[in-house]
Amino acid sequence: MTLSVTFGYVGLFFDDIFILFLICFVLLVNWLFSKNHHLNNLKSISLIMAANVETVLFSLGTYTARIIFFMVNNDWKLRILEELQQNFIITSLIINIIYLAIFLLFAEKNREKTIKLWIQIEQYHLGKRVFSISFSVFLAFMVILSISDFQSVTATIQAIILSFFTIILIVTYRQLVFFVQTIAIQKESQEEILYNKQLNEYLTSVHQQYTELRKFKHDFQNIMLSMKPIVDKSDSVELKNYYRDILKEQTELSKISEGNISQINTINSDTIRGLIIQKFFIAKSKKIEFNLELTQDSYYFKQDTLIIVRILGILLDNAFEYVQTINDKEVTCAIVQSNNTTEITIDNPIKQDLDFKKIFKNGYTTKENHSGFGLANVRQLITESDNLYLETKIIHNHLMMTLIIVGGD
Amino acid sequence: MFPVYLLEDNSIQRQKYAEFIKNGILINDADLELKSITGTVEDFTADYIPQKQGLYFLDMEIQDNKLAGLNVAEKIRQDSPLAQIVFITTHDELSLTTLERKIAPMDYILKDKGLEEIKQSITNDIELMQKNLQLYSHSSKDILDYKIGSLFFSIAMNDVIMLYTQKNNPGRIFIVTKNQLSEFNGSLNTFEKDYPNLFRCNRSYLVNLENSTTYDCHSRVLSFIDGSSCEVSFRKNKELTKIFSNKKN
């Protein structure tokens, strides 16, 4: 940037075309000295954009200075400028710097966006395209300036051409930003689809393993049962002890039939399934036992899935947060669906001494609930939609929060 | 006398449990009678007469049908919302949270825990049942019903603390009971008419005075057993003061 600004001032004393040559020269040097004769796209783009911006600002500065001089002398003739050449150059430089400062302030304000844009350009290999667009804009600009110089077009017409060109320049840059963002969104969604595919494959394989394990467990139980009479008849104490030990193992084995993430495919909604999978992994990383009770073959969610996801997210987070403070780190999510009515229950154990009345107070004092502002948000979301209902229940030392969804056709 | 049912397909276990139940009734001097001991769903259905109150001990898996007990329980729950259901089952047959939503059983007794513990649990459940029976016997209208979508909910009147509405949520009633807070669509006027035992203490509150603790007639604040409270309208103050002074005498 500073480089181009310096050259910008030098250019003041030469012709406009000088800048074009300069930029091309810099690019050429860059290209010759870089490895494999490869242009550094980002640097080139910055250079060209800076040159573009500076040329526009400089022209604007010059014209503003001219207008000021005309108005001060109340005489609209170019001759004045020649008479006061020294003053005029200084004034136009000062105005140029002011414009530059304003531009830099503006750029500084949008720094984060710009950085994000750069990262996107780099990430999605859009450098060449952006470079060619900005370079052709710059080239066109230069050509117009030079031709108007050679042909000695009147200042008024040049001013009009310049201001239109400035507008076109702004629009082009805006379009460029939009283009980059669109590409970024497209790429991101492509990546997400790939990720989902991988996840689904993973889940299918987990499901297969799980089914095999279940089958094995079933066989194992049958074998144990059929062995029992033989063991009973036998006199060997050792055998009996051994049998009892294996029986103990069996209770360990029985744990595998508990809620399993592999049943997640019974949920038809991508967003809800995604949320549950995400929370499943979070629970795993926090060493929370997260059980899923999906006993039906399929669950259909037609509407409101975004609101449902938000509510479920909060309820699950609350449950995770709470069980981390107690020994029994267990959270269950059960879904029961029948006749267009769906019940999603989040269940976690609560300590006996928890003052559960406080949770309910949320309903009519709005002051308190057991884990901060989350429940208030849930309340808000439910109030906003007609077909959602929340039930909070404490039973057998478990807190069960059930979201009831009525609807569909 | 209220009936007790036992459904268990294993004959040895069935005998044992029947014995425990009879003992439990004796120990608690409960107003209960072991009316039916069956081993198959068909036999159970033949014996079964729907009744408002009853205690049911059910095995979950009957003759290789893993859901037999659950189906029976769903039928019982439909017929009588107040029936007390106890599952006697092995641990891995359970989806506890789902079961809680569908049946809301009084207890789960795990078979793997051993006979002594099963016996203790059965005795405890009978004791709890006896207590419940005493509580419900003096309520005029003993169940409050409401509906969400296609689901019917029943709450024992004894558990109801209050129903209320909120200005920002018209048409929706919130219900507070001893252990839950729920919501459904309806109008308080209908409930006031249908359940005359409930007291309308202001425009948006319908309360169960049986679960109230104190009333301050100067600040007009009515308090309840769960620590909650509500304001009583000026108009209803006199009426409520009268009820409370009668209650004391």
From TrEMBL, chain B:
<feature type="modified residue" description="4-aspartylphosphate">
    <location>
        <position position="59"/>
    </location>
</feature>
<dbReference type="InterPro" id="IPR007492">
    <property type="entry name" value="LytTR_DNA-bd_dom"/>
</dbReference>
<keyword id="KW-0902">Two-component regulatory system</keyword>
<dbReference type="InterPro" id="IPR011006">
    <property type="entry name" value="CheY-like_superfamily"/>
</dbReference>
<dbReference type="InterPro" id="IPR046947">
    <property type="entry name" value="LytR-like"/>
</dbReference>
<dbReference type="Pfam" id="PF00072">
    <property type="entry name" value="Response_reg"/>
</dbReference>
<dbReference type="Pfam" id="PF04397">
    <property type="entry name" value="LytTR"/>
</dbReference>
<dbReference type="GO" id="GO:0003677">
    <property type="term" value="F:DNA binding"/>
</dbReference>
<feature type="domain" description="Response regulatory">
    <location>
        <begin position="3"/>
        <end position="126"/>
    </location>
</feature>
<protein>
    <submittedName>
        <fullName>DNA-binding response regulator</fullName>
    </submittedName>
</protein>
<keyword id="KW-0010">Activator</keyword>
<comment type="function">
    <text>Required for high-level post-exponential phase expression of a series of secreted proteins.</text>
</comment>
<keyword id="KW-0238">DNA-binding</keyword>
<keyword id="KW-0597">Phosphoprotein</keyword>
<dbReference type="GO" id="GO:0000156">
    <property type="term" value="F:phosphorelay response regulator activity"/>
</dbReference>
<feature type="domain" description="HTH LytTR-type">
    <location>
        <begin position="144"/>
        <end position="246"/>
    </location>
</feature>
<dbReference type="InterPro" id="IPR001789">
    <property type="entry name" value="Sig_transdc_resp-reg_receiver"/>
</dbReference>
<keyword id="KW-0963">Cytoplasm</keyword>
